Structures are given as C-alpha cells and as structure tokens.
Amino acid sequence: MDNPKYARVQSYGSMTTSASEDDMTVHSRLFPYQKKMVVEREILYEEENPPFQPLLVTSRMFGEARSTCLLVPYIFFYVLFLMLGAVVFSMLEDPIDKQTRIEVLQAKADFMARHPEILEGDLEALLEEVIKASNRGVSASKNVTSGPNWSFGQSLFFSSTVVTTIGYGHVTPLSKPGKLFCMVYALLGIPLTLVLLSALVERLLLPATALLRALNAALGHLYRPFTIRLVHLMIIVTTFVVFFILVPAAIFASLEPEWDFLDSLYYCFISLTTIGLGDYIPGDSPEQPYRPLYKVATTLYLITGLTFLMLTLTVFYDIPQLNLSTVFSSMKLDEDPEKMRLSGSAGPGYGIGGLVMRDHYDQRRSVVHIRPHLDDSPSPEDTTPVHARDIRLH
C-alpha cells in the first residue's frame, strides 16, 4: 500500500468517477481544489442483503404481466379461504343450531300439551309477531322495562353505527320517511366520518413520528430501519390491543350482566373492525341504569377506537415489506409515484403524517476508503485537521 493514511468517507448520493472505476475526483468545501483519489469501497450488509420488498421482487420475476400472474392464483386462494371458513363455521355451529331447534320445538310441544284449548295456528301467529317485534328491537317480555328505542341516546348510538358503517341492525327505521332519511344521512355522513378520522389520524401521527425517531436514535446503530419499524409497529399494535380491546372488554364485562369477558372481547373486536353483527349490543339489558349516557359513552368509544385502528393500519401499510397489496397493481412501478413511495424508492414519509425513516436501498449508505495517488500531494494551503477528513461526497 503506497500510503497508510486513509480518509473515511460516508457516501449518501451518487459518486462521480473519472479515468477508471477506482479513481474519482473529490469536490469538497474542505478541499477546494480537485484531488484524484483511488477508492476502495466497502459494501455494507444491508446493501448486499436488502430486506424483501414484494413490489420490486415480483416486478423482476414476472415483468409486465406481474399483476395478472399474481392476481389469478390469489383469487383461487381467496375462494379456498372462503370455503375453509364455511367448513369450519359449519362444523362448529351446526350442532348447536340443531340442538337449539330441538329445544324450541320441544318447548312448543310442551306448551300445547299443557294448554290444549289454544289452537296451534293462533300460537304460530303470536310467535311470528313476537319474533318480528324482537327483530325490530322491541321486546314483548313483561319483565323487560328498557327505555324506548328512539330516545336521544339510542338515536345517537344508531347514527354513529350508520356513519361508521358498523350497522348492528338491532334497531332500524320502520317508517318510509325514516328509511329515506337514513339513506341520505349515510350518503353524507360516511364521507364526513372518513374525513374526520383521517384528520384525527394525521394528528396522531405526530407523536407516532416522535416515537419512531426516538427508536431510531436509540437503536439505529444496532438494527436496520426495517427492524426498527417493526418494533415501532408492535408498540402501536400493543397499545391498540390493550387500551381499545382488552380494557374496554373488561369494562363491558363488568357492566353487562349477561356478558362474560369473551363475549365482551368479541363485541369490541366485531365493532371496531366494523363487522357489526348485532348479536351483542351494550346497554340493551333489562333494568340498565343510565342507559342514554351509556349509549353516548359507547359511541365515543367506537369513534376513538376506529381512529386508533386507522392509525395502526396506516403504520402497517407504510412498511413496504408488509404491504402486499402493491404486488397486484396493474401499473408499472415507475408510472405510479405512490407505488414508488410504498416500495421504498421515493422520498420519506408515511401516507398521511410524513413519518421519516423510509428504507432507501437506491441511496444506501456505504463506507469508502480513499487514498491519494503517489503524485497527489496535499496542497500547501491545506490546513485541514486529520479528524476533519471524515467528509461527505457531494
């Protein structure tokens, strides 16, 4: 080696070369004159082994037919997934359904045996009216003294289930004007709710950004950005599960006399995922105290929980290695800036709030050793200290 002295350079951009691949001209504020250097470049581990990025990998494998080649087997897989769900639900629920039917028929037969003077047709007509009223949220039981279905608290709860698309279906408009108003109200309310949730998520991304930067400052010298972002995602997911699933489930289990913890956990999950089956409704048990206030508090919980769920999904989908939806795009990577952003090839930022720490593998940091030629002596005017020779190439 001609000269044992090395200058250590961290390169973040493109390096201009001259004469050969090993020579380059350095332009720097520290070195105002041109210096021809011999470059020995160390490739970092993350440069040799970048993390898996679905969009880039599938684009190389299938080319322009990528979206079609992947969408067809995915549709086949999705159909199989639906069939698997049908088989499992049938195996789990069909025995209980059959047993319930047998018990209802036996109870009906016992009633007719005890009261032979009642005609079976009259009993059937009565049962149909009771079932119809129950489906509309009206109980025919003498011991049930719950409040009206369309009090202010109940109506506010119903409005929230409409505009958030949860739609439990336990209480529905019965009049024709009510049904028409419900359609118009949903048509206006759903977009307004999406705007509100997006605005709230944008505010929540500010502390999420601060958390990610803190993790990067604490762990950036030990782990690659993808690993740090996974840790960040796990913190967000854990916060959502604890404070919007487990804790509310425990509260509902203590307030609802007929719910155990599993029932409450099931209700929280079904509601916040906007499935809204309507089999469990808080505040509908007989003699429920402060029912209107209970409904209003539940409405606030649903909106808050949906907001944090959107935050969690935003953080999740902004990690390009986890966002598998990009592989089915019919557009080329360089034709859609958003796809380039999600693939990690564009500038930093989460979709709404602009979180930093995008994984750049087209501008990866590398370590470059530079040694001068034999005929390249320092300038007499160069008074730069040795420690200042750690420079960035421009």
Structure explained in plain terms:
- The model is unreliable at 1-48 and 338-394 (pLDDT under 50).
- The chain has 394 residues and is α+β, with helices and mostly antiparallel strands.
- Strand 2 (23-26) and strand 3 form a beta hairpin.
- A 4-stranded antiparallel β-sheet has the order 1-4-3-2, with no helix packed on it.
- Helices cover 53% and strands 6% of the residues.
- It has helices at 45-48, 54-62, 66-114, 120-135, 152-163, 176-219, 225-255, 261-272, 291-317, 337-342; strands spanning 7-11, 23-26, 35-42, 366-372.
- Helix 7 packs antiparallel against helix 9.
- The relative contact order is 0.18.
Which structural class best describes the helix and strand composition? alpha+beta
Instruction: From the alpha carbons, calculate the radius of gyration and give it in angstroms.
Output: 32 Å
Shape by Cα distribution: globular
Q: Strand order of the main beta sheet, please?
A: 1-4-3-2
Low-confidence stretches: 1-48, 338-394
> What's the end-to-end separation, in Å?
27 Å
Classify the beta-strand content into a percent band: 5-15%
Question: Mean pLDDT, nearest integer?
Answer: 75
